[in-house]
Amino acid sequence: MLELHGIAKRLGAFSLADVNLRLQPDEYFVLLGPSGVGKTVLLEVTAGLVRPDSGRILWQGKDITDVPPERRGFAVVYQDYALFPHLSVAENIAYGLKARGESRPAAAKKARALARKIGIAHLLGRRPENLSGGEQQRVALARALVTEPHALLLDEPLCSVDANARARLRKELKRIHRRTATTFFHVTHDTDEALHLGDRVGVMLGGTIRQVGSPEELFRKPSDPEVAQFLGMRNILPVTFVRPGVCQAYGVEIHAVCADESASFIWIRPEEILLSEQPFDSSARNQLRCTVDGWEHSGILLAVRLTSGALRLTALITHKSFEALGVQAGSVLHCTFKSSAVHCF
Known about the structure:
Layout: E1 2-11, E2 14-23, E3 28-32, H1 39-47, E4 54-59, E5 62-63, E6 74-77, H2 89-99, H3 104-117, H4 133-145, E7 151-155, H5 163-180, E8 183-188, H6 191-197, E9 200-205, E10 208-213, H7 215-220, H8 225-230, E11 236-238, E12 240-243, E13 246-249, E14 252-255, E15 265-268, E16 274-276, E17 286-298, E18 301-308, E19 311-317, H9 319-325, E20 332-337, E21 342-344
Parallel strand pairs: 3-8, 3-9, 6-7, 7-8
Antiparallel strand pairs: 1-2, 1-4, 4-5, 9-10, 11-15, 12-13, 13-14, 15-21, 16-20, 17-18, 17-20, 18-19
Helix pairs in contact: 2-3, 2-4, 4-5
């Protein structure tokens, strides 16, 4: 188990503040956050490449804060892969083994075995300049994994490849993780990448970790409005408390199971807003008459923008529902959602 306790680091105007994190054995953990919040610095602190101003790093219960990076047993893969251009793929993979004193035949044998395991044996004789971005990434992973590290630390490993290759390489990373049973600590600014890869995901904002949970937990119950906004969630509204179970947003009363005096914001899941031409026959407490302001594609769904007075909402519906409702700008529709679909902050 890898544990970070109270990690702090100041670099000029930037700082990490009281970062606490625990990675479970063999899990794929993704740290998600915008550029400049300290993800890479935290990764380098974990690797021992940057010393924290305060805090402790533990591996399997042992304090390794003062242990030099070469003795921690961690491997780092950076976004540019940093392959040696003058060496073949086989020599790149075996480099770390030879650097720690293994014989050339033993290192070559281990490199070939790992290359077969992760599907790049056919590349062993090539040079990095003759590889695609995806192939270079797999070679960089193999070079890191061949030393059998306790944990693999990945710094934005997919940012240098195009969108088509990125989807394919996400699957490769997941497959390699399953086959090697190594702890992966992956940092990225890409929300889709985090949600596809992470067993758990941590959201880092402002130099600290704001929430950790499964991808489903993050999207079903974000910890605060800033996390929700960073994750791209819609329908985050400031509210005032009216009475238990009821709040007000832009002059409209909204029923919410969670509403109490502590609520300052609410979030309404857009996929749980039902649209109809006539008032919907439902036990749902929230039924509003809305005007269509516009729409846009959102994956395989359509995001319909709605207004009710000063209140603005977005509902996600299928193309079939869109056509059945005859949605047009200025159309009047009824929007219905349950009080349990509202999350309070």
